[in-house]
Design brief:
Structural class: mainly beta
Distance between the termini: 49 Å
CATH topology of the largest domain: Coagulation Factor XIII, Chain A, domain 2
CATH architecture of the largest domain: Alpha-Beta Complex
Strand content: 35-45%
Number of domains: 4
CATH superfamily of the largest domain: Transglutaminase-like
Shape: elongated
Number of strands: 41
């Protein structure tokens, strides 16, 4: 991991929100050297010093008055309730700690954690929870004292808030640590425990200490008494507080969502199983923070947590969760389009410690949503259509042609992705001036580095909207994605480049997310940018351009003559396997006749905007009278493109040309995708918790070729653990039906999600709603 103390001069890119930690927190207790003292290497070497000596971690066992026995924490999972000294009748011995952690009980429901498939107590910070203690004898108010201690990490310290000695109080101070006796009944005491609204999030170890006339007793750590503390959007003092109840249900509690893809003219959607409450996912999310080397002291800050999550969800730099792959070759892993949820990915990573293969932007976003919701940070996946990737911080998207209007691929490092999926997360921004709380953009897809690591955000949406790219984090890159101008350059005879066309509305279209409380698509473009062409939108571009790497390059064309305009219209809903028609319209707005030579080139493209060489070219000669418009139609047969396609069936039509009379250069690009069929899913039987039912999945191959090595991935939160069903080959235009049996684990509205992958067809998926009754 790069040292966070290294500064950068990138505008809007700042060091991490939390200090660098020289050693990575360990998930298990370190082995202890026989020696009581550290060697020179342990004292001075960054890696060796991560092994603690016996002097680093201490616990105090119960003793008689005046006698102390120091021991080391050799086994963090040890249940050690036996004291090392004799117990006398006057000592107040803790015989039982009941955290009232039943998933259907008051604690879990009050803290909105009852859906987590864990038997542990899981609470949200800033809100009290109830515990019950049982003693060896009746509790005496005048003589006895109970002290609760919570600690996290391997070397807990009060000064770093990793060791909390909970004070006993008569009344709670809102948002602060405190313990309050609710009731004493003989040997039993019921207490309310309030956590700080700024507490470190993670898994705490609980110890109970008593002081009485018989001496001091400390009940040693029992893993069954560990407590998970999470961020709390229901607490007004928490930095992630969200006032809208419907929003909290959607952005914290909803386990499934919609991810949008395709093009702005042909928006596709797929369901995604976030699965943030599935067994093992919470531990996997905390493991990500450990692997990211995040100091425990930084884990109270949602800004810092988002920075680490953004870096760790991708595998570059730090062997994070998902390995990206845009090559089209996924033989040694899983195709990105085959995943239907985050659960399998996170559990694989936690189990192996190795990046999971493979992912692309929607996979990174889906996993990020899972991690943030699981930890208690409101989050959503969003899709930006025609999303710019600005590689040189110029805040423009530059396209270069040679003298004959052929693309100069070696210079075209910027690109427009058909779509790009990232995340919004909700929090206050105390590190910024007022007005920038609320939704923040976070992107885990590895595109550009921020403070030395591949990560992006959190960047406040109001800053992106208004071009305030000097506000952290990574606002220049986020702004360029949604509101940069597309500039076409042509090489001249002397080698210089002339600006021949500027598209001011080329990127940042139909920014989409799943609507609250429904499966409809919600357009949130207005949160990211002002209306296209408005003075406010142009002012935002001018403001951002001042801080770009090439501010002098912004402005109108070098040649102001724009009398001829080109538009492209695509046939709606072109299915994979069908022929395609495209219409190009040229309009002459001048007062005189003009002659135009057009070149139309088809090329296949990755959804990231990277095109292969053109596989079909068509030349059209037009003569237009003053004020006249003419259209030409070009056709593309299935036989011409079927052996050319790459992932997701995307193609690009590039139209270039020149007006002979004026020399005006014409340039226009249009991307489109071919639609794929859906899986049809039907549930057979009555959905009841604990009763096996069946999902019937049907698919028809639309192509005139055989689909080989076909597999169907299925899963659903509370319904079905991730599973792969091998189908084999599916003949041309043949149909298959499979039956998948599953047993619902949790009641309520659920979704059963499936996707299909094969050698020639992907991005095929389906979903069905399942209402599960309690047993």
């Amino acid at each position: 991991m790069a040292n966070s103390m290294e500064m950068t001069t990138d505008v809007g890119r700042w060091p991490p929100a939390s200090p660098h930690m020289s050693r990575q927190p360990s998930r298990v207790a370190p082995s202890l050297a026989p020696s009581r003292k550290k060697s020179w290497f342990q004292r001075c070497c960054g890696c060796c010093s991560s092994a603690h000596s016996e002097e680093d971690v201490e616990e105090w066992r119960s003793t008689a008055p005046g006698v102390r026995d120091r021991v080391t924490d050799r086994d963090p999972d040890r249940s050690d309730t036996e004291p090392t000294v004799n117990i006398n009748d006057r000592m107040l011995v803790v015989t039982c700690v009941d955290l009232l952690k039943d998933r259907r009980g008051q604690n879990r429901r009050a803290h909105h954690t009852h859906e987590y498939e864990y038997d542990d107590l899981i609470v949200r910070r800033g809100k009290p929870f109830e515990i019950c203690l049982t003693f060896s004898r009746p509790f005496k108010v005048r003589d006895d004292k109970v002290i609760l201690q919570l600690h996290i990490g391997n070397a807990p310290q009060v000064s770093k808030d990793t060791l909390v000695i909970v004070p006993t109080v008569n009344e709670f101070d809102e948002g602060r640590w405190g313990a309050q006796v609710k009731e004493v009944n003989g040997k039993t005491m019921t207490m309310w425990v309030n956590t700080s609204a700024k507490a470190i999030i993670g898994k705490y170890q609980l110890t109970v200490k008593t002081e009485s006339p018989g001496g001091t007793f400390v009940m040693q750590r029992d893993p069954k008494n560990d407590i998970y503390i999470l961020f709390n959007p229901w607490c007004r003092l928490d930095d992630v507080f969200m006032d809208n109840e419907a929003w909290k249900y959607e952005y914290i509690m909803n386990e499934t969502g919609r991810l949008y893809y395709g093009t702005e003219q042909q928006i596709g959607e797929r369901s995604w199983n976030y699965g943030q409450f599935d067994r093992g996912v919470l531990d996997a999310c905390l493991y990500i923070l450990d692997r990211g080397g995040m100091p425990y002291t930084g884990r109270c800050d949602p800004i810092a947590v988002c920075r680490v999550v953004s870096a760790m969800v991708n595998s570059l730099d730090d062997n994070g969760v998902v390995a990206g792959n845009w090559s089209g070759d996924y033989n040694d892993g899983v195709s990105p389009t085959a995943w239907v949820g985050s659960v399998d990915i996170l559990l694989r990573y936690h189990h192996t410690g190795n990046p999971v293969s493979y992912g692309q932007c929607w996979v990174f976003s889906g996993v990020t949503t899972t991690v943030l919701r699981c930890l208690g940070i409101p989050s959503r996946s969003i899709t930006n259509f025609a999303s710019a990737h600005d590689t040189d911080a110029s805040l423009t998207l530059d396209v270069y042609f040679d003298e004959n209007m052929n693309l100069l691929e070696d210079m075209n490092t910027d690109s427009v992705w058909n779509y790009h999926v990232w995340n919004d997360c909700w929090m206050t921004r105390p590190d910024l001036p007022t007005g920038f709380d609320g939704w923040q953009a976070v992107d885990s897809t590895p595109q550009e580095t921020s403070s030395g690591l591949f990560r992006c955000g959190p960047s406040p949406l109001p800053a992106i909207k208004n071009g305030l790219v000097y506000l952290k984090y990574d606002t220049p890159f986020c702004f360029a994605e949604v509101n940069s101008d597309k500039v076409y350059w042509q090489r001249q005879a002397g080698g210089n480049f002339k600006k021949v066309c500027v598209e001011e509305k080329a990127v940042g279209h139909r920014i989409s997310t799943k609507a609250v409380g429904s499966n409809a698509r919600e357009d949130i473009t207005h949160l990211y940018k002002h209306p296209e062409g408005s003075e406010a939108e142009r002012q935002a571009v001018r403001t951002a351009a001042q801080y770009g790497s090439k501010p002098s390059k912004h402005g109108p064309n070098d040649d102001d003559s724009q009398d001829v305009q080109v538009t492209i219209e695509a046939q709606d809903g072109c299915m994979m396997g069908s022929d395609i028609s495209m219409q190009v319209t040229v309009r002459n707005s001048s007062g005189s006749q003009c002659s135009i030579s057009l070149v139309l080139r088809f090329s296949v493209m990755y959804y990231t905007g990277v095109c292969r060489d053109a596989f079909k070219e068509d030349v059209k000669e037009l003569v237009l009278a003053a004020g006249e418009a003419k259209s030409v139609v070009t056709h593309l047969k299935y036989s011409e493109y079927r052996n050319q396609l790459v992932d997701q069936g995307a193609m690009m039509l590039t139209v270039s040309g020149q007006v002979k009379e004026t020399g005006q250069t014409l340039a226009k690009q249009h991307s489109f995708r071919l639609r794929t069929p859906d899986l049809t899913i039907r549930v057979l039987g009555e959905p009841v918790v604990g009763n096996q039912i069946t999902a019937e999945i049907t698919f028809t191959n639309p192509l005139q070729v055989t689909l080989c090595n076909t597999a169907i991935h299925v899963e659903g939160p509370g319904l079905q653990r991730p599973k792969v069903v091998r189908v084999g080959d599916i003949g041309p235009q043949k149909s298959i039906t499979i039956l998948e049996h599953f047993t619902p684990r949790r009641p309520g509205p659920r979704q059963f999600i499936a996707s299909l992958e094969s050698d020639k067809l992907n991005q095929v998926h389906g979903v069905t709603e399942v209402i599960v009754r309690d047993a």
